[in-house]
Amino acid sequence: MKHRFRKDDFSWEGIASAGYKATGERDGEGFRGVTRHIISGTEGEPSRFQMRYFEVDAEGFTRLERHEHIHSVTVIRGSGYAIVGDEVHALEHLDHVYVPPMTLHQFVNTGATPFGFLCIVDAQRDRPQPASADDVARLERNAATAGKARR
Ligand code: MN
Prior knowledge:
By secondary structure, the protein is mostly beta strands. It is 6% helix and 44% strand. The mean pLDDT is 94. Manganese (II) ion (MN) is lined by residues 65, 67, 71, 105, 128.
């Protein structure tokens, strides 16, 4: 089965987009301007992974969180950065980022255009844990991540 890519609005035929709110979250509660497309893994495929596409609007960011499952992320649109543990990685077209288990992470758009990335996850996965105030304080004390986290 093919899902044709639509260049005009950066989407795939037959694949709907949804905000984080589709998972019970609300814009402004730790993230901003994020939409999600589930490309593969929820239509009965015999797989143990899902492939999603996330798009972060200009000035937007994903939630600062951690969990046991990993992320395998490949940027396909725009530019931004990722906080991963105690490091910050500048990201552009086709860069890849691995987010290990229980590692604090956040994706932030730094451009004037949408920042989009494919994200592969386990189909069966634990619930993300939002960063605590202590987590944020630790990021602010660390030179590499100071001033980078968004809430
Ligand atoms: Mn995550």
